[in-house]
Amino acid sequence: MARSGDLCLTLHPDIENRRTSVVRQFVQGKGTFAGKSVRLSVAGMSSEKGMLRLVLRYKVDGQDRHFGVRHPGDGTWRTLSVDQILPQGTDPDFIEILVVLQPEATRNVFVDTMSYSLENR
Predict the structure, then answer these.
(1) Which domains does the chain have, with CATH numbers?
(2) CA-based nearest residue to 119, from 61, 21, 39
């Protein structure tokens, strides 16, 4: 089922308890994010519209900021991408990268080839 190579990650829905399934990566970097462009991408396959998401999350002044994209649910491999510029003066302790299977999902989703970059703007 993998898009590239032999393996991919499978997220299974929790149909009985309706819980969200999440793969999360914290990127530490106090003092490195302000004014930079954060780019995330992941290859994903889902047969249910909007059930697979890629999300960038960070906190500014105690408030959560979320930026994300959803898979269209067409049963094909799609590259999901988030490109967000963190404003000058924004200096979170970390950013969080999330691959999310929504609690309403009833089918497995597949994830492959994730990337992250931080670039000057």
Answers:
(1) 20-120 (2.60.120.260)
(2) 39
